[in-house]
Amino acid sequence: MAKARLQFICQNCGAVSPRWQGRCESCGEWNTLVEENTAGGIGGGPGKAAVRGRVVELQALAGETKSPPRIASGIAELDRVTGGGFVRGSAILLGGDPGIGKSTLLLQASAALAARGERVVYISGEEAVAQVRLRAERMGVSAAPVALAAETSVEDILATLEAGKPPALVILDSVQTLWTSTVESAPGTVTQVRASAQAMIRYAKQSGATIILVGHVTKDGQIAGPRVVEHMVDAVLYFEGEGGHHFRILRAVKNRFGATDEIGVFEMTGGGLSQVPNPSELFLGERNAASPGAAVFAGMEGTRPVLVEIQALVAPSPLGTPRRAVVGWDGGRLAMVLAVLESHCGVKLGPHDVYLAVAGGLRINEPAADLAVAAALVSSLSGIALPADCVYFGEVSLSGAVRPVVHAAQRLKEAQKLGFAKAVLPVQSIDKEQGETPGLVGIDQLAGLVASIAA
Ligand code: TYD
Ligand code: MG
């Protein structure tokens, strides 16, 4: 047995410190160091003689490269995010707020796979088997042959999985409840989560089963504990949604086998999650086009165009330092657009409170939204509603120029499909044939947009 070694591990970032400190030196969080005894812990155990490994030339592998074997869940919105299905032998972390619908989504995916003859094992450490069954009944998927188990010990789980036909998919709900007897820490601590996840990932690689680890996120948006698992898994997916909305968005933040900019859109209903194949219709559904301060942004989420309304409210501020509040967009980006409007377009927003929201609970990361944001701000300030049949996109630079963005044609096509007749976009994004389409307004300076709204 290795000598017991005392260590202090940060429960936020997983950093190891030889002595206790009030503040983690690595991530700066206070009061996160917890004493952990790592005797025989991860990577520990009795010493083993070194064995020479096998080295392969990259070129020699040329003939062997093929796309990884995948199992599609049959839920199109989920398969889009994973890049075409779960890769066999891979590990996925699904993070999200408690109650957002992670268990619901995975139960539905399990049922869909099991119904097609794959062996799926759903291990719940949070709910009793009867509870999971009840939920499945409510969702109308209780007939699917999903194997359910309520276990939290990694050793027991591995023994359960070894018995019977090897599974294609194993769900572990959640990683915070797992514990292994190889380490002495309490369940939910970073050491336990990491050691348990490591054991399960090893199982995935050996058996060829896909494992999905569920991880709860804390209020500040970090996956508590499971964050240290992020770099161990092949893909990290987040399930997010705004309180009060029924929309749920599945987003990949890391994917070794696919793109990370795709989103899957779902709606939470009484009978589980239903897919939303055309999110634009949903996001524009509750629109009040006649009110000032709303602009429709023609955005892209991965390979899919998504139209969404950007709402701005500009109001005189009673405070010395006016408020700036943003939901669904980057606050830094808003500050930049405000500064450009002030200094290059003569729009005086300085003494005003500014609120900006992306409708429907969507979060936008594209700089292409700059132009729509600017339009919404100017519209709110001037009290003039924007044309109801117009979409906006384009990146704004610090000099006040409007820069071209990718996929202009796709954005315009989606807008046209949804009944929009006009678009304001960077002039360089209009190619020759599009130039003849009526309704397209190409601009190269943000000042041009401001002048057109006031006119
Ligand atoms: P759940 O999947 O348990 O969330 P998580 O695993 O992320 O903690 O989802 C729980 C919420 O979803 C709960 O507030 C009720 C709601 N819900 C529905 O609205 N309809 C349904 O059919 C189900 C199963 C859940
Ligand atoms: Mg759950």
Give your account of this protein's structure.
By secondary structure, this protein is of the alpha/beta class. It has helices at 76-82, 102-115, 129-138, 154-162, 190-207, 279-283, 331-345, 370-382, 408-417, 432-435, 446-454; strands spanning 6-10, 16-17, 33-37, 70-71, 86-87, 91-96, 120-124, 147-149, 169-173, 210-216, 235-240, 247-255, 263-269, 272-275, 294-301, 304-316, 324-327, 352-358, 390-392, 395-396, 402-403, 422-426, 440-443. It is built from 11 helices and 23 strands. The protein has a 9-stranded mixed β-sheet with strand order 8-7-9-10-6-11-12-13-14. It is globular and about 75 Å long. Residues 40-45 have low confidence and may be disordered. The relative contact order is 0.10. The longest helix has 18 residues, at 190-207. Helix 7 (331-345) crosses helix 8. It has 3 domains: 6-37; 68-277, P-loop containing nucleotide triphosphate hydrolases (Rossmann fold, 3-Layer(aba) Sandwich); 282-454, 2-Layer Sandwich (Ribosomal Protein S5, domain 2). Residues 102-103, 126, 173 line the site of magnesium ion (MG).
